[in-house]
Amino acid sequence: MRSFKTAILLAIIFGFLCPKTINAQDSNLGNWLIYIGNKKLNNKWNIHNEVQYRNYNAAGDLEQLLLRTGLGYNLTDNSNLLLGYGYILSENYIGDTDDKVSINEHRIFQQLITKQKIGKVGLSHRYRFEQRFVEDDFKLRLRYFLGVNIPLQYKQDAKNPLYLSIYNEIFLNTKSSVFDRNRVYGGLGYKFSKSLRMELGYMNQFFETSGRDQINLIAFVNF
Known about the structure:
By secondary structure, the protein is mainly beta. The protein has one domain (2-222): Porin, CATH 2.40.160. It is 7% helix and 67% strand. The protein has one helix and eleven strands, in the order H-E-E-E-E-E-E-E-E-E-E-E. Strands 1-2-3-4-5-6-7-8-9-10-11 form an eleven-stranded mixed barrel. The longest helix is centred in the first third of the chain and has 16 residues, at 2-17. It is globular, with a radius of gyration of 18 Å. 13% of the residues are buried.
């Protein structure tokens, strides 16, 4: 746990102390600092918790703060059903100006995660349904996530701490503009122990008429 705390502390300090000379209006590269935790209550029940600090620029400039939690139930050894809640604070730029407006969102969601193995490659499917309360507006959204985990320097029955992580996630609205966004990610991960792994990766997020690139630093913690 000491190595985890040190890594996260250094990442946060780096994000805040780097010079913020690049205006977000002139940059399509941002960074996301992500913590994803899972607390096992027993063989069936678990608690999910998540914090994401998203910046417009690689040097920092808050785009979103996302807090998410939920209660999960293992249907089988390879499938988990979860009911969750999220709070999202978005700092949106107004037009081409340097001014921002704050948007608050409360979100209820239900999700099903299933996992499978094809040889040494692990696959993860996540189906999520969101009910979004964005200020005075109510929206519904569907998401499908397909993740691929490939161990590197693979040896049978070895720990194989180094791995490659790839995923694609599509977001679909239930109203007029059905396509919301798509995320494509590739990263390099390292398993420090059964309780901790970390990833550093690149993600492209594109919308109907625009797109953005993100550098992601992710910590996964199991208690």
